[in-house]
């Protein structure tokens, strides 16, 4: 049954989803405004798109096929029901790309994370097999991100990296709607990365070895990031300007003496990776950089996991990092400098993306990034 206001889940959804027909579905909403729509039929496979980080979310995913039978429980969990289908041009395009009969094609929907680069992601599956994913946007800036990601995936494929998706299509659907369609190796047997970090390091080593690039520091993407961050310090009159500038100078001095850089996924996190056949696969390379300090993705993975999944404060994230530093030193010398380099990059990324106006969650993260810079400097001085 259709719920009032379902078309407003996300304005773009009203352009690609048909709420009048299709199949019965369930709407899941989390505490940060993210929403998923999963069909009641074959819900187990459909829920592979739903990758919760909280205990409550994981329990919802595990027991939703049973919970969805109780209207009272669903109301308590903030879930609702509606009928859902894709508009015909989209169904036909996806059926063509995945070589599946349109009547046998199924899908689940992630309505995106609130923000300027928000888009819809569809998981496409048939007969219990996940075929791939389709990202949808009607925003010019996100279209440019799609086009850039296509080039990135094509380059990685040429370099022999098979632990990322293959782009099947990047282009328009109908006027104003743009698609990015990709393959996947995800299956019902895929799992999140556990405590064993061996396969994480294997992924990063393969990426950084095959994508190593000899280039002067002044010609790297990362050098340009630091220069841009300097401009933002002045533009946004950051009260932490001295801390940020001091760390920029230290990181610059270190990397000026180096000439080998590598690829940077840009959003390498537990929710953008999965394990299949004891190998790690990554997706969503929208923020990929070609010439960054090697292995910097590790520090993003660690910090995001600590904040979102483990709910650590800055000291908790720092202590966990110190406990892993011996392992990190097997891949990069002076890991504290690399961690600082990462923190400067993430500060730049969000100030740039959100034009200096961070939402409350990012304000909390920003405070943690600054405190981590101070903790790394404090320990070095003692």
Identify the notable features of this structure and list them briefly.
8-stranded antiparallel sheet, 13 helices, disordered N terminus, alpha+beta, 382 residues, 13 strands
What can you tell me about this protein's structure?
- Strands 3-1-2-4-5-6-8-7 form an 8-stranded antiparallel sheet. A 3-stranded antiparallel sheet has the order 9-10-13. The chain has a two-stranded antiparallel sheet with strand order 11-12.
- It has 382 residues and is an alpha+beta fold.
- A hairpin with a 2-residue loop joins strand 5 (120-126) and strand 6.
- Helices cover 44% and strands 20% of the residues.
Task: Please sum up the structure shown.
With 382 residues, the chain is an alpha+beta fold. Helices cover 44% and strands 20% of the residues. A hairpin with a 2-residue loop joins β11 and β12 (279-282).
Poorly predicted regions are: 1-8
Q: Evaluate the radius of gyration.
A: 22 Å
Q: Biggest sheet, in brief?
A: 8 strands, antiparallel
Distance from first to last alpha carbon: 64 Å
Shape: globular
Mean pLDDT over the residues: 91
Secondary-structure-based class equals alpha+beta
Strand arrangement, largest sheet? 3-1-2-4-5-6-8-7
Order of helices and strands: HEEHHHEHEEEHEEHEHHEEEEHHHH
What is the count of DSSP helices, taking H or I runs of 4+ residues? 13
Percent helix, as a range, is 40-55%
What portion of the residues fall into strands of 2 or more residues? 15-25%
Number of E-state strands: 13
């Amino acid at each position: 049954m259709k719920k009032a206001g379902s078309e407003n889940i996300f304005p773009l959804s009203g352009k690609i989803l048909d709420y009048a027909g299709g199949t019965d579905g369930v709407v899941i909403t989390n505490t940060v405004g993210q929403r998923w729509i999963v069909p009641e039929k074959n819900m187990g496979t459909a829920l592979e798109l739903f990758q919760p980080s909280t205990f409550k979310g994981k329990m919802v995913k595990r027991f939703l096929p049973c919970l969805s039978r109780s209207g009272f429980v669903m109301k308590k969990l903030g879930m609702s029901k509606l009928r859902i289908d894709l508009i015909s041009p989209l169904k036909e395009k996806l059926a063509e790309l995945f070589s599946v009969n349109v009547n046998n094609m199924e899908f689940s929907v992630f309505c995106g994370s609130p923000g300027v680069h928000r888009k819809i992601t569809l998981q496409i599956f048939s007969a219990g097999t996940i075929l791939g994913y389709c990202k949808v946007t009607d925003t010019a800036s996100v279209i440019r991100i799609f086009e850039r990601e296509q080039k990135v995936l094509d380059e990685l494929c040429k370099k022999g990296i098979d632990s990322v998706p293959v782009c099947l299509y990047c282009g328009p659907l109908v006027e104003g709607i743009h698609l990015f369609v990709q393959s996947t190796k995800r299956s019902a047997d895929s799992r999140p990365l556990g405590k064993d970090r061996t396969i994480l390091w294997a992924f990063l080593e393969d990426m950084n070895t095959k994508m190593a690039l000899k280039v002067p520091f002044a010609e790297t993407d990362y050098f340009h990031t630091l220069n841009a961050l300097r401009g933002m310090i002045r533009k946004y009159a950051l009260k932490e300007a001295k801390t940020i500038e001091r760390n920029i100078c230290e990181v610059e001095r270190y990397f000026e003496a180096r000439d080998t850089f590598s690829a940077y996924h840009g959003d390498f996190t537990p929710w953008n990776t999965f394990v299949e056949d004891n190998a790690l696969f990554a997706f969503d390379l929208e923020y990929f950089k070609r010439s960054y300090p090697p292995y910097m993705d590790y520090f993003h993975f660690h910090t995001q996991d600590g904040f979102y999944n483990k709910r650590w404060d800055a000291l908790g994230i720092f202590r966990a990092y110190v406990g892993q530093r011996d392992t990190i030193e097997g891949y990069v010398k002076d890991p504290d400098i690399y961690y600082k380099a990462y923190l400067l990059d993430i500060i730049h990324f969000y100030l740039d993306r959100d034009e200096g106006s961070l939402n409350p969650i990012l304000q909390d993260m920003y405070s943690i990034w600054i405190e981590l810079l101070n903790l790394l400097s404090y320990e070095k001085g003692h």
